[in-house]
Amino acid sequence: QVQLVESGGGLVQPGGSLRLSCAASGFTFSSYAMSWYRQAPGKGRELVAFISSAAGSTNYADSVKGRFTISRDNAKNTVYLQMNSLKPEDTAVYYCYAPRWAHWGQGTQVTVSS
Fold first, then answer.
1. Please, is 80 exposed, middle or buried when counting C-beta atoms within 10 Å of its C-beta (0-12, 13-18, 19+)?
2. Is 64:74 a contact under the CB 8 Å cutoff?
3. Is the C-alpha dihedral spanning 110, 12, 47, 29 positive or negative?
4. pLDDT at 30 over 90
């Protein structure tokens, strides 16, 4: 079955960086687009970034453009989210999502605070 396992979250100071990873299994990873979402306390889940199957196309939420980069390694069945210049408003649980399968990972907490 489809499994998505996120890692890499944690506590970071404003202006710092983190890299999230999402290891996928149970499907032909290289054939499908992937996404990252986030959910802040008291708010709905929002799309952060999207990457096509061959990484030829990416899209970002306006709030993270120029600071976050989504990438993938199809040989490792892994999608990444590099987050730079982090702000307190980036604090949220970050989820990996496989659109074709409508499947979510368990989420990883990112807290940006001094």
1. buried
2. no
3. negative
4. yes
